[in-house]
Amino acid sequence: MRRLLMMALAAWAVGVTAAVAAPPPVAAFARLEAIQDAAISPDGSRVALLGGPAGARSLNIATLDHAGAKTVPLGDIEAVSINWAGDDYVIVRVGYWEKFGPRSQARFERNVVVSAQGQVGALLLSNDHASRYATGQPIVRVVHGAKPIVYLMGLQQTIDRSNVDSRIVQKGDEQTFKWSLWRADPATGHGRIVENGNFDSFYFEPDSEGEARVRIEVDPKIAKARVFARAKGQRRWTEIWREESGGDYLGYSDPEDSVYLLQVNEGGQQVIRHRLSDGQIERVGDPSPYQPRLVRDPYTGQALALMAGGESMKVQYLDAEIGAVHGLLSRALPGRDLGLVSWSQDRKRFVIVADGADSPPVWYLLDWGKKELSPLGSSFPELAEAPLGKTSWITYQARDGLEIPAYLTLPPGGRATGLPLIVLPHGGPAARDTNRFDYLTQFLASRGYAVLRPQFRGSRGFGQAFEDAGRGEWAGKMQTDLLDGVAALGAEGVIDPRQVCIVGASYGGYAALVGATLHPSAFRCAAAIAPVTDLQMLQLHVVRAAGRDSGMFTGFRDQLAIASREQMIAASPANHAAAVTAPILLMHGDQDAVVLLDHSVLMKNALERAGKTVELLTFEGENHYFYRPQSRVRMLEALDGFLSKHLPAS
Fold it and tell me: Is the peptide bond before 429 cis (omega within 30 degrees of 0)?
């Protein structure tokens, strides 16, 4: 099996895999992953790989027990993920941008069906006019079999009430669509509604029979979620959780007919199982200081494991068989984070990914019966023999006493004192970095820099109190958390505190510019990728995209702690260009629908009027995430030249 599989895949993904000189070229980091996602068919006879050569995305479908593979070019499109629907169809999730005028554009994701023979077929929900306006159409479940069924979220057109002669304003009067649960046939793409939504509906979870068991609603006025559920055989919905009570919703487990929820108490974050048949509540696992997530079987919906962690995810298995597979792999591939990505319905074959902060992802096929592990390939094959930075998990105290965790990556070569430092805050800001491979971190380390990725207050995954501590602190304590990390490393002698630059994307780009404007003496230079530069402009974009009555708008206002106009002006870097003393590099895609290019243009103009050193690079046809390899190459080359000039690592 291994020899046949390697013959089928050898010419597809990796290209040139010879060892490269140190430091590796920019293209080795900037390439799109040779293997981006992988999935095995339910019967275990085929494996589908999303990836391909550095300059193009494609889908490869390889047979496992005899030679043969089909390669499907995907063209110039953002490929997101893949999933099987039965044994004969692969669903490729793709993203694209659509413009609705000079000031409005949005990112859409759609589900394209490809046959196991490599023929591009249907687009799911292609028969419904209303669902074409849905930005996401997320798949919530696939029921496999001879005639597989895909359950996904789509839109339902509402009754036009604009001509109703009434002064009573009712919920939904201004809504054209509402979210509903659909089922679709992957052979034709055609779908139909199986559960009507209401005006607050956001998400449904069905059981194996396609009956909706969970309905999640979000009230746009308060941007808070509520979870309703019903036991098998029942039609009446019962509210079982609301966001105001704390904790979180984790998911529905079909065989148990139970909902998994998260409770927050003095002992930490405790997972509970809420049985729908009798309302019985049971504790599951041990409480954790970190926010757990639930792993479920893609075929049965059974709860399999809980994952939570600080430096890296720790797994607590609820299923002994899956736990045994992970145990074997941990011994075979020590020192790396392991992901059980996909498996056959009989659990005899598994697709595995193993990586770490200092090791690019490598994909494997595991034959559980034979205990045979076969490599499928590496996501970054040109880095296979390259020296990479070494990452450690550290904590330091913020000036108000809050403990801040962070990842610190030191450059290859062994030097560990007096290093030049790049502060690299993550986006979100309600997100977090992980112990997985990050191409930008390792690129910067390969150029001789220490890289600090602080998990500043407001980051998600470290408890609700830690996340709530970031409310209203975008330019306040979230920023001083970064400065306190620099001070801690300087006090230990790891870095030279006079040799520090800050680099970030999205909210991280905003943080970089806040550092350069509100704390100009802290950084020698700042580079911002797709940054927010004016909070009022961002708020206006949210209003135009979703409306003032939307959960998106309410959530944004909540993150800023209902900031006043004056507070937003004070927290916007574009209003403080005169304070800048360091050179600034701005990089932005012209198709960015998350943070408009206008933000970087505004910042550039403000800096030029103030007589400051600034450069703006615009990337044609690029989105918020820089998904084109040529854009990533240009971005890294520009960043490399900018840092070499203003913070030379030598």
Answer: yes
